[in-house]
Write a structure and sequence with these properties.
alpha/beta; six-stranded mixed sheet; 6 helices
């Protein structure tokens, strides 16, 4: 299913931040198993019905679908922000949600102080400082601990949000159209960053990326079409993009 990586996505050795073990189970067990998931909004509008999805392991996995197909709702259920009305979610690892608009999740004045919010509480002060430095370096923002967030570009803000998700210890990143508000250059940078993090040798990181941009499907390890609250099977991203009508995944 894997397609060619985006430019700039060459993988070096994995950072210690993305090599932590996930829950010990049989090696062949999927990292995420969604079974017959259902969800309705207040008022009765059905968002998901009998939705099944599996993340087999590390890599960049993409969901594409039109507006109202249920893809963003599914991410929020996986992140624990919504409660399913039926079905089961079995996840072997910690998840972290990255919003479309980073301003909705960057809460403190500086890069370093905001990253502190993501860190596990059991870390010592020295460990927290080290993890902040490592997370910033991982996304290309090294040395910006004291940089005011309001001075960052949109692409830098999104990279900071991704740094927070990784610093939290999450092994499954849930990315809700993370390039939707960015210029083309920043879109390519974010896509290359996630591809690099999820494919680095020894990495224990998977990314579930929601998109409506068919061109992004060319760079994933597997793509599935969301339609009427259900996810289709994984398939080659480039092949799926060619099979969809132009504008077929428009929001």
């Amino acid at each position: 299913m894997r397609n060619r990586p985006p430019a700039g996505a060459a993988s070096g050795p994995a950072s210690a931040l993305i090599t932590e073990a996930i829950t010990a189970e049989a090696p062949q067990s999927p990292w995420l198993q969604v079974s017959n998931l259902g969800f309705s909004w207040p008022g009765g509008r059905l968002a998901l019905s009998g939705c099944n999805l599996q993340i087999p392991g590390p890599g960049l996995w993409m969901l594409v679908g039109g507006n109202g197909s249920g893809k963003s709702t599914l991410l929020r259920l996986l992140a624990g922000l919504l409660q399913a009305s039926s079905g089961e979610i079995h996840c072997r690892c910690r998840t972290a949600l990255v919003f479309q608009n980073p301003d909705h999740q960057l809460l403190l004045p500086s890069c370093g102080s905001d990253l502190q919010l993501w860190l596990p509480s059991e870390l010592s002060l020295a460990q927290r400082q080290q993890r902040v430095r490592e997370a910033l370096a991982l996304v290309g923002l090294e040395g910006l601990e004291d940089r005011p967030i309001h001075t960052l570009s949109g692409g830098q803000k999104q990279r900071l949000a991704i740094a927070g998700a990784v610093a939290s210890g999450a092994a499954l990143l849930l990315l809700d159209e993370p390039t939707a508000l960015l210029d083309p250059a920043s879109q390519a940078e974010i896509l290359a960053l996630i591809a690099r993090l999820s494919r680095a040798p020894g990495a224990r990181l998977a990314a579930l990326w929601v998109t409506h941009r068919l061109e992004e499907l060319e760079h994933c390890d597997g793509a599935a079409l969301m339609r009427r609250g259900q996810a289709g099977p994984w398939q080659n991203g480039a092949s799926l993009a060619r099979a969809l009508p132009k504008g077929g995944a428009e929001r």
